[in-house]
Each structure stands twice: as structure tokens, then as C-alpha cells.
Amino acid sequence: MTQVGHNSNKPRAGGVAVDQLKSIIARVEKLEEEKKGIADDIKDVFAEARGNGWDVKAIRQILKIRKMDQSEREEAENILDTYMSALGMLPLFEEDGE
Amino acid sequence: MTQVGHNSNKPRAGGVAVDQLKSIIARVEKLEEEKKGIADDIKDVFAEARGNGWDVKAIRQILKIRKMDQSEREEAENILDTYMSALGMLPLFEEDGE
Amino acid sequence: MTQVGHNSNKPRAGGVAVDQLKSIIARVEKLEEEKKGIADDIKDVFAEARGNGWDVKAIRQILKIRKMDQSEREEAENILDTYMSALGMLPLFEEDGE
Amino acid sequence: MTQVGHNSNKPRAGGVAVDQLKSIIARVEKLEEEKKGIADDIKDVFAEARGNGWDVKAIRQILKIRKMDQSEREEAENILDTYMSALGMLPLFEEDGE
DNA sequence: CCCTGAGGCTTCGTAC
DNA sequence: GTACGAAGCCTCAGGG
Predict the structure, then answer these.
(1) Residue D6's pLDDT band (boundaries 50, 70, 90)?
(2) Cα distance between residue C25 and residue C8, in whole Å
(3) Are the beta carbons of A4 and D56 closer than 8 angstroms?
(4) C82 CB contacts (<8 Å, ≥6 apart)?
(5) Which residues, 6+ apart, have CB-to-CB distance to C10 below 8 Å?
(6) Alpha helix segments (H runs only) across A1-98
(7) Key word Disulfide bond present in the record (chains A, B, C, D) (predicted)?
(8) What is the pLDDT of residues C25-70, one digit of tens each?
(9) Looking at beta carbons, which residues of chain B come within 8 Å of C25?
(10) What is the model's pTM?
(11) In Å, what is the separation between the CA of A67 and the C1' of E6?
């Protein structure tokens, strides 16, 4: 079996597929490395802030608030969409008797 | 090894532990059975509703809206708590010069 | 026959339909609440197990295996039923509901 | 020495502190945005892989294994460092940053 | 067959 | 430093 996935179709055969697989793995690992680097940068910022006397926990709270505010706005739009969608499909409670 | 978990401490030994394990499994399986029963009840309600001519998808939307509304309210309280917490810990931007 | 219960797509009109809709929503929400309660009970069991030193993840795996075994058994029974049906035989027993 | 940069718990007072706080928040939010962008890139790679017929779950397992191997290797290096440190030896090389 | 949504696993931050 | 709790990520099941 030249392919990795047990349950998958077997795309192409031989070296091409292997090269493709290696490429996928390399790209993901590179991206994850970058992601980790950024996470470390964030830690550095907090460490610097702490070193300057700031209450890091409080700053995290602020960031959380800002994030929640923004997601709340998005959620409100979501509710509106869902609501309109539901309205478009309902009997609409009309009192047309019969 | 009388215990299941590889990485766990090994609580007690012999038959008592086994009985306890069996009890845990039995309780969980019973509860999951009950849970599945309720899920089936819900399906029945929807099936009945569909049989009565209702647009089940629309009703699901309504339920979703009601759920979102309520979680939005809870989230608002969350924001308030978080905000108060942040306020309690911050320099408060006072302009007291020095 | 009233305005509900027939095959029309949308039971418009009248308080009865509204009441019926409210009933559907109430029943589903009640059932979902019960479902959540049971889910919480399951969490409690696991928490207690963890407190007693058990490896919860391993226990979950056991439960999963038991479930697979059981569904395989059910599958076997299904095959049996199919064969019996094909042979014009009646099921020997109804399962008693609890 | 200004009002920031010392060891006081709370750099109160003045616009400089506020500016510094704003800067911290902005930097963290920017970095988190970048982080999210990279996470999305990773998703894209997996989506493309899936589109080419690969078993994404299997690839994830490979990545996990490679990560474990690597951290075991790092652990081994850590042990080496520890030994060398205990022996009063200096590290042979610094890792070049990229 | 796709897609959304719930559930479980893992990691990171916090409190003791 | 250890253990608890929360947040993000991945998986899988159910519905459209």
C-alpha cells in the first residue's frame, strides 16, 4: 500500500503521492511553527507589560471584553438572520379564520 | 496490573476496585440510554409536528433563536462581571499627575 | 376536522395552531432540558470516578468498545431478522420495553 | 525614570501609561489576529489535502507522532544539557534563530 | 453528500 | 509546583 489513509481513496501512486504528502506535512509543520512563534510573541508582550508594572490579568480581562463585545455584535446579526429565516417559513399566525 | 488506566494512580486493589469500575460503567451506560431515549422523544415530537403540517425546520430555527436569546442574556451578565473585575484591578486611568 | 391535522403544508390561521406550536416548542424545550440534566449527571459520575483515581479517558474507551460490540451484536440480530423475514418466519420475541 | 518601568504594582497616572496600555492591547490583538490567520491557513492546507483524496485524520496522526518524536528528541537534548551543566561544561552551540 | 452543531480532548492560565 | 478550570481544536453524529 503506497497510501497513508486506510479509509481514503488512493490518489495517484508512487512517488508523486509521497511527494505530495511530504509537502502537506511540511507546510502544516511550518505553519504551526509560525503559529507557535506568534504565541510566544504574545507571551513576550505580556511579560514586558508585567515588567512595566501592569496587571496582566486585568489586561487579559480587557482583551476578553473587547472580544466579547465584538462577538456579541456578530451574534446579534446572526439572531437577526435566523429570525428572518424563521419568519419566512412560518404560518405567520395569520387570523384568516378559514 | 489490576487497574485500567495506564497513567493513573492505582486506587485500592483487587475486587473492590473492579466492582467500582463496573458500577461506574453501568451508571454511565444507564444514563446514556436515558439520554438517547429523550433524544428519541424529541424526534417523536418533531415527527408528530411534521405530520400536523408544521415546518419542522422553521420550528428548529425558533428554538435556536430562543436559545441564543437566553445565552445572549447570560453573556451580557458575563461581560458585566468581567468588566467589573477588570475595573477593580486596573490603574483606572486616573489623571492624578503624580 | 379542524385546520390542523390535515396534509396542508402550513396550518395557518387561528389560535389552535398557535397553541399547538407553543405546545411543540414547550415540549421540545422541556425534553432538551432533561437531556442536559442527564448529560450533567454523566459528568458527575466521571468527576467522581476521577476523584477516586480512575483514568476517565480509559473508561470512555471501554464504553466506546462496549458500544461497538453491542452495535455489532445488534447488526448480527438484524441479519438474523432479515434472514428470518426472507424465510417467512416470525420473530420469536418482541423486546419488552424496559 | 518615568512613571513606568519601575516595580510599582500599578502605573497610575497620566497619558503615558494609558498610551502604553493601548499599545499593549493593540499589539496583542494584532498578534492574535495573525495567529488566527495562520490557523486558517492550516485549515486551508487540510482542506486542499482532503480535496486531493488524502485522509486528513491519518495525516494529523502523523503530525502528532512527529511532534512526539521531536519533543522526545528535545527531552534527550535537555538531559544532555543538564548533564553538561552538571559537569560544568558549556553548550557547544547556540541555536540560530531561524 | 455537505454542513452545521454538540461532545470530547488538549493546552494554557490561575489559584493554592 | 500542582491541581483545577477555562478556551480552542478536532471529531463525529444528525439534519437539509
Answers:
(1) very low
(2) 20
(3) no
(4) none
(5) A90, A91, B53, B55
(6) 14-51, 56-89
(7) no
(8) 999 999 999 999 999 999 999 998 888 888 898 889 888 888 887 7
(9) 59, 62-63, 66
(10) 0.76
(11) 23
Dmax (CA) for chain A in angstroms is: 75
Residues B95, D14: C-beta atoms closer than 8 Å: yes
The amino acid that residue A73 corresponds to is: R
- Strand F nucleotides with an atom less than 7 Å from a protein beta carbon: 7-12, 14-16
Look at residues C73, C7, A25, D73 and name the one whose alpha carbon lies nearest to residue B50. Answer: C7
- Residue A60, burial from CB neighbour count under 10 angstroms (0-12, 13-18, 19+): middle
Length of chain A, in residues: 98
The answer to whether residues D17 and A20 touch, using CB atoms and an 8 Å cutoff, is no
CB count in 10 Å sphere of residue C77? 11
Answer yes or no: are the C-beta atoms of C63 and B33 closer than 8 Å. Answer: no
Residue type at C82 in one-letter notation: T
| Separation in Å, CA C87 to CA C75, C84, C95 | 18, 5, 21
Whole-angstrom distance between the N-terminal and C-terminal Cα of chain C? 36
Q: Grid coordinates representing B83?
A: 468588566
CA distance linking residue C6 with residue A41, whole number of Å: 64
Q: Whose grid coordinates read 461506574?
A: B24
Query: Between vectors from CA D87 to CA D86 and to CA D91, what angle results, nearest 5°?
Result: 90
What confidence tens digit (pLDDT) does each residue in D59-73 have? 898 888 888 777 777
C-alpha cell at C89: 418466519
Give B98's Cβ-side CA count (13 Å radius): 7
Q: Is C12 close to A97, i.e. CB distance below 8 A?
A: no
Contact predicate A3/D59, CB 8 Å: no
The count of other CB atoms within 10 Å of the CB of residue B54 is 22
